[in-house]
Amino acid sequence: xxxxxxxxxxxxxxxxxxxxxxxxxxxxxxxxxxxxxxxxxxxxxxxxxxxxxxxxxxxxxxxxxxxxxxxxxxxxxxxxxxxxxxxxxxxxxxxxxxxxxxxxxxxxxxxxxxxxxxxxxxxxxxxxxxxxxxxxxxxxxxxxxxxxxxxxxxxxxxxxxxxxxxxxxxxxxxxxxxxxxxxxxxxxxxxxxxxxxxxxxxxxxxxxxxxxxxx
Length: 215
Description:
34% of the residues lie in helices and 22% in strands. It is α/β, with parallel strands linked by helices and 215 residues long. It has a 7-stranded mixed beta sheet with strand order 3-2-1-4-5-8-9, sandwiched between helices. Mean pLDDT is 90; it is low at 196-208.
């Protein structure tokens, strides 16, 4: 995993109270986000991670930083409540990346979506095309409401995805509810591609563009 500036979008809506993941959607998501942030920051000393919460008004919990401790504090500080706004979170994330201090390396947004996406598909496609134009890759982790959100999220990822060195740069990863650990599942997907010195994503296949990987 090379130098990267990454904004992680947390779903902290009321749906995160559900206990269909170990042990709640929120706790499963927090563990996955922290594992991902640690992987990105440890893979390159100049990589940075920011944290944005998407419910009760989009809130920048943490601007881009190399400090994994600050990421941990910001993730754990997110409070559950209200409805998630993926579209607004993408807009805020794009601004954070535009104003990054280190303009080298890749730009990426990783959004965890565990509640119904209320934005219409046409707007999401427009946003996807704009993000692609600005050189920003997006990984979507869909969990909890994956069937309801499938059409919208697939269309969005198809719009934002492009080939980089022969591989898709954006992915949709779908993780249905079950006894498995969300973070463990994500380790085998393109979201963790290259993390911890490994290939990541080998078990997931191509990922973005055609709808991504499902588990």
